[in-house]
Design goal:
Shape: elongated
Structural class: alpha+beta
Strand order of the largest sheet: 2-1-5-4-3
Mean pLDDT: 82
Strand content: 15-25%
Helix content: 40-55%
Number of helices: 21
Distance between the termini: 109 Å
Radius of gyration: 41 Å
């Protein structure tokens, strides 16, 4: 090794004896094509600068001579990226041609004796094969030769890209948070200091608490009416202890209008302490909602629920007595006798509840939280409706509208619903026949049966798996496992790869109220409903299962010559082509009648109400000529079907819609358009569209 101190100016020996990889690169290069020439000919000032640069861990470079030959150390090689090692000894302008417009003037100033320093200069560089935005802090300093003339420049540089990107991300995130807070449906405010001065309020806060001057003022100055209501003490406690405070439905007497008396509001809110880097509380973040309207709606719903609970309690006593009779006699017949009465009362109770909730939802009543609660109540009402339908299906008492149904098309139409209901861990596959697969069925009830089978399959695969739905036409011969008469049938099969059933469970699977699920996770009527529907359609349900392997449920349906066109209720929107006018509404249940009248009025109809068929006939005899008649079927005295026949004798083309609570179907003309209780506005609109279209035909 050559000792650094032994090198004299003009010494022909090598000058690059250290400097890591950059130094080694300098020693190995052919300098004949470099504007710097051979290292042995480099002047002493250049040698000194290079020696200083190579020995530093900080990114540095030197550009020397008229053409600014480029030299750098290991730390700077990282900045060069793919330009290294070709940049060593090259011309500075060639190395950084893409940023020369930015750094060229700075280099010119340095070569004219003016040192420059720039912080976080943005540069678009191409050092990895593509343009990228970067930031650098650096200085250009002039370097003089032996004669004291400026012969080059020296640069110490630090890349600050990561710092700038991080700062901008923080700023963008802060701005995003501010926008979120500004647009949040709930009220939000930020208070600072021990006296709780307003630093930020969003639009919802200002809208709720009136047009007051907030920013810079204390809570006690802005809300003097809250003195003695606990709010100031809660804020003081959070600031002193650093513990969050949560309040639910806290009452507050607020003066929302100038010179007006205070009014009571109910608030849900959270006081969250804001702390600095040392953990000291510096302020309080408050987020909350005005729940006054929600509480009023909950009170109304609670009253409806209490009414329903009272009626349910009455029917529960009857149900217990009927269950005792079931244990002493034939279960199916006893259940069938009970179901009609229970269904009638339940559906009459559910109709005004469902209609009211539907109206509140359509009118976007209340805030977001109230809407979620209304949606939850509607979902519960729908579950109650489905429960009644399952009871009727099990007891084989549901009125069916049989037609040729294209089973392949039906499966295809609800495949997406089944997939979304099954969840991401379950793969849904369809194995559908290419030929016609029409079968005699009620499309709506068959859809419900298929969804029941899919839900059972999903629940049997808690860790995920494969759910397969297959449709094909088969010819059943003697001794078939379905025990059906010979002939053509359509097979609808739902298979899973779930936990399966042992022999004992499989034998009891279609028993009513038998379930292997936990309490509250199923009614035990799903398979019973499918079994009852299959029998009512003249078909059968068969089950095959093995523990740990999976289950296949097969629904066998009588083949039909062809599929009927979809009904208007299945293909049109709720208000498609709805012709409004005067409607005569007949129902002996006042709550049902009022709820239905609200829906009809909301559609634009002029509603005339009658509490019985006899009252309706009296109105007609007095000159009323309605455009449409909507009537309950089972009423004291004259039934809705009798009224429909009387109307058609007087006006043959008059549309009449029968509304049924499933109490019984005896005496009901199956050709009359009908709607099942309970129903929502869209169901009523669809039924009216079908009814008027049928009458016009």
């Amino acid at each position: 090794m050559i000792d650094q101190g032994s090198v004299e100016m003009g010494d022909p020996r090598p000058v690059l004896w250290d400097g890591g990889e950059a130094g080694a690169l300098m020693r190995s290069l052919d300098w004949s094509h470099s504007p710097l020439g051979q290292p042995a000919d480099w002047p002493q000032p250049l040698r000194s600068v290079v020696s200083l640069m190579l020995g530093s861990k900080f990114p540095m470079f030197v550009a020397w001579g008229p053409e600014l030959g480029f030299l750098y150390n290991d730390a700077y090689a990282v900045i060069l990226g793919a330009k290294h090692p070709e940049a060593m000894g090259a011309r500075f302008k060639d190395v950084w041609s893409e940023i020369w417009e930015d750094v060229g003037p700075l280099a010119h100033r340095a070569l004219n004796g003016e040192a420059t320093w720039l912080e976080d200069l943005p540069l678009v560089m191409n050092r990895k094969g593509f343009d990228e935005q970067t930031w650098f802090t650096f200085s250009y300093s002039p370097v003089r030769d032996d004669a004291g003339q400026i012969a080059g420049m020296f640069c110490a540089v630090a890349e600050t890209t990561d710092k700038i990107v991080a700062q901008r991300r923080l700023a963008d995130e802060a701005e995003r948070q501010r926008r979120l807070f500004e647009r949040a449906p709930g009220f939000i405010t930020v208070l600072t200091g021990p006296d709780h001065r307003f630093d930020f309020v969003n639009e919802a806060y200002a809208r709720l608490f009136g047009q007051r001057q907030f920013l810079g003022r204390t809570v006690r100055e802005v809300f003097p009416e809250l003195e003695g209501q606990g709010y100031f003490e809660w804020l003081d406690g959070v600031y002193a202890t650093g513990e969050r405070f949560v309040a639910q439905t806290a009452p507050a007497m607020l003066q929302l209008e100038p010179d007006a008396p205070p009014v009571q509001r109910f608030l849900d809110f959270i006081y969250e302490p804001v702390v600095d880097e040392q953990g000291q509380v510096t302020g309080i973040f408050c987020e909350g909602h005005d729940v006054t309207e929600r509480m009023a709606a909950e009170t109304e719903l609670r009253e409806l629920a209490e009414t329903l609970e009272h009626r349910v309690a009455e029917r529960t006593s009857e149900l217990e007595q009927a269950q005792e009779a079931l244990r002493q006699s034939q279960k199916l017949e006893a259940m069938g006798q009970l179901t009609g009465g229970v269904a009638h009362d339940f559906n009459n109770l559910l109709t005004p509840i469902t209609g009211t909730l539907d109206l509140l939802q359509r009118r976007n009543f209340g805030d977001e939280r109230t809407q979620r609660q209304i949606a939850g109540a509607l979902a519960s009402a729908e579950r109650a409706k489905v429960l009644v339908q399952r009871l009727l299906a099990f007891a084989r008492r549901q009125p069916l509208q049989l037609a040729g149904v294209d089973i392949v098309r039906l499966v295809g139409e609800i495949a997406d619903l089944i997939a979304s209901t099954s969840g991401p861990k379950i793969k849904v596959e369809l194995d559908l026949a290419n030929d016609s697969s029409a079968a005699f069925a009620d499309a709506n009830q068959l859809e419900m049966a298929l969804l029941n089978l899919a839900v059972n399959a999903r629940d049997a695969m808690p860790d995920g798996g494969l759910l397969t739905i297959a449709v094909n036409k088969v010819v059943i011969g003697a001794g078939h496992r379905s025990k059906l008469a010979t002939g053509e049938y359509v097979r609808l099969a739902v298979s899973d790869t779930g936990v399966g059933m042992d022999e004992e469970t499989l034998v009891r699977a279609i028993e009513p109220f038998f379930s292997t699920k936990g309490i509250g996770q199923g009614t035990g009527l799903g398979l019973s409903m499918v079994h009852g529907l299959a029998l009512q359609l003249g078909g059968a349900l068969t089950l095959a299962s093995r523990s740990g392997v999976g289950t296949t449920a097969e629904l066998w349906l009588r083949a039909a010559p062809s599929a009927a066109a979809p009904s208007l209720s299945r293909t049109h929107g709720a208000d498609d082509d709805l012709q409004v006018g005067t409607v005569l509404l007949v129902d002996d249940e006042e709550l049902v009648r009022e709820s239905t009248a609200d829906m009809l009025s909301d559609m634009g109809f002029n509603v005339i109400q009658a509490r019985s068929a006899e009252c309706a006939m009296k109105l007609i005899s007095e000159g009323l000529q309605p455009d449409l008649v909507v009537t309950d079927h089972l009423m004291p005295g004259m039934s809705g079907t009798d009224l429909a026949f009387a109307m058609r004798e007087k006006w043959p083309g008059k549309p009449v819609l029968i509304v049924s609570g499933y109490a019984e179907t005896a005496g009901m003309d199956p050709n009359l358009p009908r709607l099942t209780k309970p129903f929502r506005r869209r169901d009523l609109a669809a039924a009216i569209s079908l009814c008027t279209a049928t009458a016009a035909a």
